[in-house]
UniProtKB/TrEMBL annotation:
Organism: Phytophthora fragariaefolia
PROSITE patterns: PROTEIN_KINASE_DOM, PROTEIN_KINASE_ST
A Pfam family hit: Pkinase
Chain ranges of the Protein kinase domain: 641-893
GO molecular function: ATP binding; protein serine/threonine kinase activity
SMART domains in the cross-refs: S_TKc (SM00220)
Protein name (record): Unnamed protein product
InterPro entries: Kinase-like_dom_sf, Prot_kinase_dom, Ser/Thr_kinase_AS, Ser/Thr_Kinases-Pseudokinases
Amino acid sequence: MPPRSRWDKTNCLPDVFHTEDRLGDNMAARLNAFQRLNRRRLPPGRGLNLRFELSAYEAENRLLIKFAATGHIVGVLQRFGCVLDAYMREFSLVAAQQWTDWREELNAEREDRVRDFREGMADENWIKTQVGDEQRQIELLTLLKHDLTEHYDKLLESEIDLVVDLYNLVVRRTGLVLGANQPAWFLAPCEILVDKKKCFLHGVDITVVYDIGGREKECCEESCLRQAACWDSLCHPNIAMLMGACHIGAKPFFVQEPTAQNRANPQSWDPILGWGLALQYLHERGFTYGGFTPDRLFVRYFNTSQGVLCGLGLEHFSKTQWFREVDEIEEEKESSVEKDVYNFGIAICSARRSLMLPGQLDQLPFECPFYLNREVWALLQGMCAQLPAFRFNMKYVVFKLKHIANFPTSDAIGEVRVDNFVVPRQERSVQYLMDHIDSLCNEIPDRAPGKDLVHCRFQEIYNQLLTLKSVRSNIMYTFCDAVDRFLEFLKLINPVQESKTLTGKQRKHIRPLTSEFAVCCAARAENEVIRSFNHEIDEILEEYNSTLNIQEEILSHSFWRQDADRVQRRLLQRFQELLTGRGCYSLNKEVDGALLQHANHQRRITHSTNNMIRSTGIYRTLDQEVDFAALPEWFIPPYNVKLSHYVVSGSFADVYRGKWLDADVVVKVIIKKEGKTDQELFVALMQEVEHWAKLNHQNVLRMFGACHIGDGFIVCEGAQDTLPDYLTKIHANKSDKLWYLYQAALGLKYLHECGFLHDDLKGNNIMVGYDRKVKLIDFGLSQQREKVEPTKVLGAYRWKAPERLEGTHPTVESDVYSFGMCIAEILSDEHPWGIYPDAAVKRAVTKMQISMPKPAQGFENELHWDLIKMMCCRNPEERISMSAVVNYLYSFRFT
């Protein structure tokens, strides 16, 4: 007779089946009894699907592996028990003792289960069968350690003792010893849920990758560990987000955000631009990408115009690529920046070809094909030049891709006069721009040495244009666009532009660091920009040489390359001088220490091999004498970030749209307040960033990095609009609103499960990203629960729980209350408490103990208002859990 299943409908309170595993039997019986009692009252679609939540756990037939998931499964059962409690309250059911003691029953099941395992451990044959071979032993030890570390607070004392005894038993039998710390990205297989070929983690869609590749003679576990460590260190808008990985078992896997294969569009170059931005970032971080095969080129799910690269197959490059001399592309054996540029050029050509013809290319055609225009063909020829030293750098490639994406056709019609041509964006004459450039070059003689040659080359072209009565308009537009951007670059590197600290709308740039070492580090980045301008001038000359007919040596390819090499050698020489002799003792401990570490470990592309070795040795010496603080993984130097335009000011930071390595981002620049020391601001910034960096969920705004030196700032992903404004813009119906609220609830539930509180929930702190997914923001003042202290009330009164208005510390329950107010705000299309002034709201909640009245609209379905009442009880202990809120919002979409 087959064993009875706990999901059998006859498993119903009070007659509970006892399965071999025991864990969850009573909860399944409780669910069956509840559904039997409320079948007519329970709307279709209610998410009471405990069987699905336990599906991955129950699919495992190895008993010790299942025991190693105890903490995770107990958490699932406890959350589900709270959900059923909420439904009992909703239906006003009088609970019998058998309903209210589910926690005691769960603990009893767990104790019985521990006794069963203790008996099994006494049987040598049982142990030998369950422990298995070395692969299973490593898997078991890893999962036991992970469960104990991540879910220690959920385990009974008897379960903790059993985990420790079992771990020691396996170690004694096998001699295997795991490392001290498990990687932060590790996921247990039971955390991944599958439904109809769709995978889920923390309630959101994911993509699971099993084909992990790897190096020759590298086992799957080693490959997974190495690649996950590389991928986990990356955070960029165009790199697919790694949500976790598992390096143990027969099938190691990676979990990333949902992506789709490139769906090419003849009218859109945005996916290719996204891949270019990602590749530029990878080179900045010291990685090469390798092959650009179609299965590694993705677009973001629900947003097919944003190209993203997979984080697999990355390789560190260990030495400089500036002065390599390789005569033929076939001789390039190792990964290199130049080889990446070449392969990316082939991938671009293949992607455009695939719109009309099948198959992939392994080299460029001999002449411009019909599916490319002249501008694109010229770019690809420069990327795929046979001599690696003559290939375009990624800075220029990204610029050209942006131009192609935004202006697909560049052939303007007609002719214009040069002497009175007005530059469109500046609304000034060309002569004015040239004079302004000349003035700025004289103001900053020591910054970006290669700028003077670029200035001279632009001036020579302009002088030739002045000799002509008129030229084709496309020549003037192309030339003036380049001159305009060169002018903006000079303004950006001019310290006079930001001679004092500005805030709000006045600020135009991140204030540059002024130490000599900081200027030297910035100059190396500026040299990349100078090279891209020289590439652009080359292309202008090649495209319009028949019109311009310029022969001066200063405009030749070889002339500027020789000058660029001289500049690069001088920069490297100055860099060494600053790190040797007396110069090294003048370095600033915090500022120069951070830049030095960044230069050593994350900008390998700009160092020669000898200088890398020398500076690394010097750093070790300096670290002993100066005691540099370790550089955070999230550090971004100021010279990699540009501000575009001001958005809003908060109490903590001014918010701007900006560029980080040419990618569109949001930049939060920390406000320096009177009465606040730099050390206090530094502590506040570090607290926000350290908390934020730990979060990894699609419904929580992503942080890409930050800078804690100079003008502190945080770089994060952009968003379209606040949730209330977005819903108004799309004319959302009730079902749309509930779907977006469900996503916000998933994000808040994730924060709570990670041990964080939000404490400033309101409609304006819930955003909608460009991927049309909800993002929680402004949780910078959030604190880990175990460290929280009573604080003064921050934020708007209307959304605050009564106990917070009375001055108590924030809790999970106060977040539930505030989110209930957010639901009321979204469904009613008005702020909580309507037209009541803030003072009246505070008095009504704290003194008169009045609950918010039901809004006049938005709650035609009484179940929706019942949810608000359960979330916003005056007594925090009576409020329902976030798991129950998620369950309710999911089910409301079907009612």
